[in-house]
Amino acid sequence: MSTHRYRILVSKLQSTEKTLYVTKKLSETRWSCRADATRALSCGFREIKEALSAVADDEEEKATVRSQADGLYDRMSTLELGLFAAFWNDILERFNATSRTLQDPKLDVNVAVALLKSLQQFVLSKRDSFYDYEKKEVTYPVRPSTCSRTRARRRNIRLTPLVYGQAV
Asked: Which residue from 23, 64, 142, 167 has the least number of CB within 10 angstroms?
């Protein structure tokens, strides 16, 4: 990401009254950065979409950059991405908090076992919470995805087998 596009993103994220997190490049060695990334996406969903729209509409940007920004904007406009952002934010925040607590050198073994059981119950409870996330995501400006629609197939006339001995 260029410094110009990064400034656009930061200006959109700082223009709100609440404190928003800035998305960063994922680290290969630190998995907790994924929790940070989903938190930034979940909290600043609208602002990130606005930044993508600004980059896509900027005539001074290269055509490939504008096309990528437009594609990302369209992808962020799907209901699935809004749902997944909120879902994974909850899951990864809980994993991250549990992981940090487990790394405490003064941690008691009984507390560690209780934390892991609590985490297991939390993950199991998320299996049946799709409708809760769907209700929560009404706040995201999204459109239903068109992924479920299938394209109507047309029959290729050239591949129709020839019928020998009959007049066409």
From this structure: 167
Domain boundaries, the chain: 3-143
pLDDT in tens, 76-85: 888 888 888 8
**What SS3 state is found at 88?**
helix
**Counting every residue, how long is the chain?**
168
Q: What is the pLDDT of residues 18-27, one digit of tens each?
A: 666 776 666 6
Could you tell me which residues come within 8 angstroms of residue 22 by beta carbon, excluding any fewer than 6 positions away?
Answer: 9, 10, 13, 40
Buried b (16+ CB within 10 A) or exposed e, 21-37: eebeeeeeeeeebebbb
DSSP three-state, residue 133:
helix
- What is this structure's pTM? 0.66
User: Any idea which residue has 């990302």 for tokens?
Assistant: 72
**DSSP alpha helix (H) spans, the chain:** 3-14, 32-43, 45-57, 63-76, 79-102, 109-126, 130-136
